[in-house]
């Protein structure tokens, strides 16, 4: 669907949808414009989502107990790259409230030789929204944004031992590599980093 700004949105009602008293709530996945990186409300929702997902054990760069200041620093770095147009941020948004409840980023590589593909990073949905179709809607929105950029394939890495590979396989990704013990979650808890790819 084309929004009023000409940007494509991926819309869905998921099992997470709860009808309001007069208006049915729905979820929309959309790529944000670079200038939205300065939106304080968007930043607040993104930070709350990232902290809450991490505290719940999500594999998005942090382990509990989570330092919100460290997440805020990572978020500001992410938003800097969105503002400059280097990376593309896709958000999952509740309508009509506009509250952001999920995100994913298309991260550009550093050399021209890799310009035909990007890496999906920081894919997450608020804990209370998980397991009912929101992640599928969000990742399909990321795929739509990638196609709009003319990309040919996407890559991502998954923290082993989290049971995440089947989610990505359901959405078309295949494992293409694995670095044993790459991630030290805690002393004595090393995990593989699994590489996955998907053609668009
Ligand atoms: C990963 C994540 C985004 C998935 O979102 P979700 O809303 O829970 O997933 P969905 O309910 O949309 O599931 C989509 C499909 O994957 C399947 N699926 C999801 N998780 C699965 C799992 N652990 N094992 C097997 N299948 C799974 C669902 O059955 C569904 O299949 P279907 O649509 O064909 O019926 C979400 O769980 C999350 O935010 N996790 C924490 C953050 C994180 O670890 N992100 C991964 C970074 S690599």
TrEMBL record:
Q: Recorded GO terms, molecular function?
A: acyltransferase activity
Tell me the CDD domains matching this sequence: NAT_SF
What the entry lists under InterPro entries is as follows: Acyl_CoA_acyltransferase, Bact_Acetyltransf, GNAT_dom
Q: Would the keyword Transferase turn up in this protein's UniProt record?
A: yes
Give, as one word, the top-level EC class.
transferase
Q: Does the keyword Ion transport apply?
A: no
Q: Which UniProt keywords apply?
A: Acyltransferase, Transferase
Bias (Low complexity) occurs at 1-22
The segments labelled Disordered in the record are 1-24
Q: What is its EC number?
A: 2.3.1.-
User: Which residues does the UniProt record annotate as the domain N-acetyltransferase?
Assistant: 61-200
Q: What is this protein called?
A: GNAT family N-acetyltransferase
Phylogenetic placement of the source organism: Bacteria, Bacillati, Actinomycetota, Actinomycetes, Kineosporiales
């Amino acid at each position: 669907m084309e929004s009023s700004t000409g940007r494509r949105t991926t819309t869905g009602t998921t099992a997470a949808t709860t009808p309001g008293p007069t208006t049915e709530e729905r979820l929309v996945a959309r790529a944000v414009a670079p200038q939205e990186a300065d939106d304080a409300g968007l930043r607040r929702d993104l930070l709350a989502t990232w902290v809450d997902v991490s505290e719940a054990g999500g594999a998005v760069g942090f382990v509990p107990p989570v330092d919100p200041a460290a997440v805020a620093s990572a978020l500001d770095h992410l938003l800097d790259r969105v503002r400059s147009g280097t990376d593309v941020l896709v958000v999952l948004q509740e309508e009509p409230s506009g509250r952001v409840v999920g995100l994913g980023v298309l991260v550009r590589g550093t050399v021209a030789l890799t310009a035909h593909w990007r890496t999906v990073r920081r894919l997450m949905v608020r804990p209370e929204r998980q397991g009912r179709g929101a992640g599928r809607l969000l990742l399909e929105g990321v795929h739509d944004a990638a196609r709009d950029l003319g990309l040919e394939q996407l890559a991502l890495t998954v923290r082993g031992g989290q049971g995440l590979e089947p989610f990505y396989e359901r959405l078309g990704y295949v494992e293409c590599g694995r670095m044993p013990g790459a991630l030290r979650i805690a002393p004595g808890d090393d995990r593989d980093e699994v590489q996955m790819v998907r053609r668009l």
